[in-house]
Each structure stands twice: as structure tokens, then as C-alpha cells.
Amino acid sequence: MPNPESPSPGAPLSPVPARYDYIRDGAAIYARSFAIIREEAKLDHLPEDLRAVAVRIIHAAGLVETAEHLLFSPDVGTAARNALRAGAPILCDAQMVAHGVTRARLPADNAVICTLSDPAVPALAQDLATTRSAAALELWRPHLAGSVVAIGNAPTALFYLLEMIAAGAPCPAAILGFPVGFVGAAESKDALATNPWNLPYLAVAGRRGGSAMAAAAVNALASDRE
Ligand SMILES: C/C1=C2N=C(/C=C3N=C(/C(C)=C4\N[C@@](C)([C@@H]5N=C1[C@](C)(CCC(=O)O)[C@H]5CC(=O)O)[C@@](C)(CC(=O)O)[C@@H]4CCC(=O)O)[C@@](C)(CC(=O)O)[C@@H]\3CCC(=O)O)C(C)(C)[C@@H]/2CCC(=O)O
Prior knowledge:
Blueprint: H1 26-40, H2 48-61, E1 70-72, H3 76-85, E2 90-92, H4 95-100, E3 112-113, H5 121-128, H6 132-135, E4 148-151, H7 155-166, E5 174-177, H8 185-193, E6 201-204, H9 211-222
Parallel strand pairs: 2-3, 2-4, 4-5, 5-6
Antiparallel strand pairs: 1-6
Ligand LCYHOYRF binds at residues 94-96, 116, 131-133, 152-157, 180-183, 185, 210-212.
């Protein structure tokens, strides 16, 4: 029996305002967001040159507590900024990371490279008995020396990068490690943070991560303007 007080199907439950009250100016939204993050996030334990990077990573995920879970080598800010200014390519594990990099922020019109969709990758993955994300790194070899690596999705890509370096591949200038999820993400970032080659790194510990965080880290390191 229909409730006589219920609105008829399709009728709005409450009147819809003609105009909602929200900020419409993009720059004002960013400024307000960053002000809220600086008010709420604990940043004091971070080196001065990573605080703006942390703010942008937090902004990408909406998680202020991320600041407390950042893993980093003290030299990563300088290493990544210097490499980017010198024109280093940015090597991304996923197209989502590559697409998130704001080209206008890049100091040297840096190449942004993601090899995941290369037609050679599925066969490589089969030969190497691994994921496409990991196998795609085989195509990074000519670009690896002095690059900035941004991993935002695949734990297997971060593990494979460390295995390539252990086997003698050239070292990147800095590794931004933000693989996400429940299988291998925490472990791959622990491996990065304890790498025996003193590779400069920035990562977020545990299951947290994602392409947006990785792209945000690149964007922050590429340009100091908010
Ligand atoms: C196991 C995988 C995981 N993927 C996750 C999260 C997301 N992945 C998205 C998309 C669209 C893609 N993921 C692939 C990279 C794909 N994902 C995997 C793999 C099976 C293995 C990676 C690994 O474990 O290291 C991987 C395929 C592979 O063989 O490498 C993707 C290539 C799959 C595809 O579309 O073919 C694709 C990447 C596309 C790109 O280039 O950008 C999601 C958007 C899925 C969704 O929600 O629909 C999401 C994005 C997360 C992000 O921020 O990047 C996990 C959670 C990382 C998961 C691994 C761990 C787990 O706990 O399951």
C-alpha cells in the first residue's frame, strides 16, 4: 500500500536550490584546500623542501594523515628537483600517472614516458612470467640513468625496478614510490626504503598510494609554485 505522504516516483525529496553555494574559482579552491591542509596536517617532522610536496600529495588523496606515513631519504627533494631542471625524463608505471603530470609545471619540457601500452609489452610479460606493469619497465632501460621514476599503481613495477637495478641497470636520480593496494604495495615500498644503493626516494608506507599521489609528487617537485 503506497504511503500517501511519500512523494510520487521521480518527484524531488526537497526543493532544489536554483544555485548551490560553493566556490567556483579554481585558484581559490586550491588556495583554500592548501590552507586547510597546512592547518590540519602534521608537517614539522618533514625536511623543509618536502613540506610542499607532502601538501600536494595530501591534496590529491584528501588524507591529511598521509604526512605521517611518508618515507623518504633526506636528499630526495634536491635530487628530484635537480634532475627535473636538468631535463630528466619522468618514467611512469601507469598512463594514469603520466596523464596526471601537469606539463606546464615541468622545468625543461621533460619527456613523460609510460611504456605500459607498448605493443611489445604483453609478450614480454609472458616471457618474463610477470605483470604487464613490471614487464613494461624493460622498455625503460635506455631512459633510466638519471631519470625521475613515478610509480603510482603497480607494486610489481616497483619490485621489478629494484630487481633491474640489483642486476646492474642504470640508477634513476630519484624514485617516487606510491603503489597502492593490498598485495605487495607495503612490501615493495619497504624494499625501496631499505634499498642498499642509497637511491633517493619518497614513498608512502603501507597500503596507501595511487596514481594521483604519484602525479602530485611529480607536480610539486617540478615547480615550487602552488
Ligand atoms: C593488481 C593490479 C592492481 N590495480 C590496482 C588499482 C587500479 N588499477 C587500475 C587500472 C585501470 C589499471 N591497473 C593495471 C596496472 C593492472 N592492475 C593490477 C595489475 C593486474 C597488476 C599490477 C601489480 O600488481 O603490480 C595490472 C595489470 C598488469 O598486468 O600489469 C592496468 C594496466 C590494468 C588494465 O587496464 O589493463 C590499469 C592501468 C591503466 C593505466 O595505464 O593507467 C584502477 C583504475 C582499477 C579500477 O579501480 O578500475 C585502479 C587505479 C589505482 C591508482 O590510483 O592507480 C591495485 C589496487 C594497485 C592492484 C594491485 C594490488 C591489489 O591489492 O590488488
